[in-house]
Amino acid sequence: FVSKEKFKECFIINDENYQKLSPFLILPAKTPADFNAYSGKSKSFKTKTPQTTFDPNILDVNGWMALGFTEKQANVIVNYRDRNLKGSFKTLEDIQNCFVISPEKFAELKPFIKLNPATMVKNPDPKKPETKQEKTDFSKTDMNSITFRQLLEFGLDEKSAGSMIGFRKKLGGFMTKEQILETYNIDKELVQKLLSIAPLDNSKVERYSLVDAPEEWLKNHPYFKYSADKIIYYRVTNPDDKKIWKFLKTKPEYEARMRLYVK
Fold first, then answer.
1. How far apart are CA 200 and CA 203, in angstroms?
2. How far apart are CA 222 and CA 37, in angstroms?
3. Per-residue pLDDT tens for 202-244?
4. What are the backbone dihedrals phi and psi of residue 113, each rounded to the nearest 5 degrees, phi first?
5. How far apart are CA 139 and CA 200, in angstroms?
C-alpha cells in the first residue's frame, strides 16, 4: 500500500476497522500524484495489447494476463484449451468460442494471433480420429441435471464442480439458484455467470410435509438434520405441520430454507 487512502479502498476493510487501524499505519495520508500502479512490475504486464504476433498454444496463465485478462479469466482460458480442446487451439473459432474472451477482445487480438501447426497437439492415432465432442448449450442445460463434465466445460475447476454436484446430491436437488451460490469452494463469479444463462427445473425435487417426511431423509438432509430428532418427537403427539413449526422455534432464515423442501 502506498497510502492510507489506498489501504482504505481495500474492499474487505470497513470504515470501523479502518478507524481502528489508521493511527498505527506508517503511510502517507494521500496517494502521491506521480504514483504508477504498474511500477515495479515486469514489463510484460504493462502491455495489454500485443505488440507482435503470438502463439496462443504456448501461452501460460501469466502470458494471458499480460494480454489484459484477469488471473481467473486466464485460468479459464488455459483450462478450456488444455481440457476441452485436448491441449491446443486448432482454429481462430476455437479461441473465439472461449466465453471469457469477449467479441471486442477477440477483435483486438485477432491480427496478432499466429496458430503454429508445430505447437498443436496431434492425434496420436491417425487411423482413429478423435470424435468431436458436442458443445453444451448451457441455455438449455438444467442446473439440477448438469454434469461434472459440463461444469468443467464451462470453466469451473474440478474442486468447484465436485462441490456443486455433491451439495446438490445432499439436498436432493436445488430449489432456487440462490442455493447454488451457498456451495462451499466455488468460484462464485463464474457460477453467477452460469446461473444467468442456465435454467433451473425444481419440479422433480422431493418435498414432504413435516408429518410425513421419512426419518432417514430428515436426518440426512443438510437443512433438516439438526432439527430431525425434534420433528420426529413432536409429530408423534402433534401430527400437524403448523404446530411442529411453532414448537421448533428455528431462526427465520433457517425455517425459510427448510420450507423450500416442505409441501
1. 9
2. 46
3. 999 999 999 999 999 999 999 999 999 999 999 999 999 999 9
4. -80, 130
5. 10
Residue type, 185: N
153's CB contacts (< 8 A; 6+ apart) are 83, 84, 135, 136
| CA dist., res. 177 & res. 174, Å (int) | 7
CB atoms within 10 A of CB 98: 19
Q: Which residue has the cell 495520508?
A: 29
Instruction: Evaluate if residue 1 carries a pLDDT over 80.
Output: no
Torsion angles phi and psi, residue 82, rounded to 5 = -80, -35
Helix (H, G, I), strand (E, B) or coil at 44: helix
Q: What pTM does this model have?
A: 0.54
Reading phi first (left if > 0) and then psi (alpha if -120 to 50, else beta), residue 234 is in alpha
Single-letter amino acid, residue 247: F
